Amino acid sequence: MTPAQACCRPRRTLAAESSLVGLGVRTGQEIELSIGPAPAGSGITIERTDIGSAWPADLEHALPLPACSSIGDETGRVDFVEHLMAVLWAESITDAHLRLDGPEVPLFDGSATPLLAMLRAGGIETLPDSVDALVPEEPIFHIGDDRALAVLPADAPRFGYCLVHPHELVGHQFAEFDPSRELFEEVVAPARTFATWDELQALQGAGMIAAGSEDNCLVVHDDHYSAEPFAGNAMARHKIVDLIGDLYLLGRPLRAHVIGYRTGHADNRALARLILDTCG
């Protein structure tokens, strides 16, 4: 059963725990991420073992931080949960317990591929209960001065994104992903996090990242990329990964056609709240 199928589908969890160690881009520290089974109906939870705090991975615990999606409260937080949530969506995982010994999900190579491989290493188990999808019956819009998100009624999930970037090597890009016809691991998972060289320098200068590099990010220099993008519209495809992950903070799959234009994580979360208010 894939995310593109019926409104009501079985709950799924991991058959066994799997783990992966990577460098935290904010802290510059090695962080271990583990993902394991959880009972039916428990949802997705994130635990910080270093501080003894845990939270549901949902909109109620999503924090208003820039440049990523974070889960937490006054006791602590975990940053960069969006790629992890996207691969949980891709594998239709409804219940899982995630553990980290630090304050962020490592970016690894900047794509969702390492996380997808880690999750699949644990195997998938179908649970006895089921989950209902959120199914909008009317269009839902989140509109800003120069950005917009639209949710349109549809028979199956579908995603589109229009990227407009001032750097000439990025420029205008459009990507679509139809899970009913295309595979997440082939079409969008390999698309890496990207940033211009100037953006990375500014973030490091402001103390917002300690380990941003060409290893965990596709860097756009003045006249070249740090590595060849896996597709001509790879940056727009990566925005679809972010969109999928942020929307899975709804706690349920969404059956709709979602289209973004120049939007980011804060917009995605705002749209998710509109969806929950309308369909929840």
Task: Give me some keywords for this one.
lpxc deacetylase, domain 1, Ribosomal Protein S5, domain 2, globular, disordered N terminus, 6 helices, single chain, five-stranded mixed sheet, 2 domains, alpha+beta, 280 residues
Fold and architecture overview:
The chain is of the alpha+beta class. It has 2 domains: 8-132, lpxc deacetylase, domain 1 (Ribosomal Protein S5, domain 2); 140-279, lpxc deacetylase, domain 2 (lpxc deacetylase, domain 1), CATH 3.30.1700.10. The chain contains 6 helices and 17 strands. The model is unreliable at 1-6 (pLDDT under 50).
Topology, element by element:
Blueprint: E1 8-14, E2 18-23, E3 30-36, E4 44-48, E5 53-56, E6 62-63, E7 70-73, E8 76-78, H1 82-90, E9 96-100, H2 113-121, E10 124-132, E11 140-143, E12 148-153, E13 158-164, E14 172-177, H3 184-187, E15 194-196, H4 197-205, E16 218-220, H5 234-247, E17 256-261, H6 265-279
Parallel strand pairs: 4-9, 13-17, 15-16
Antiparallel strand pairs: 1-10, 2-3, 3-9, 4-5, 6-7, 7-8, 11-12, 12-17, 13-14
Helix pairs in contact: 1-2, 1-5, 5-6
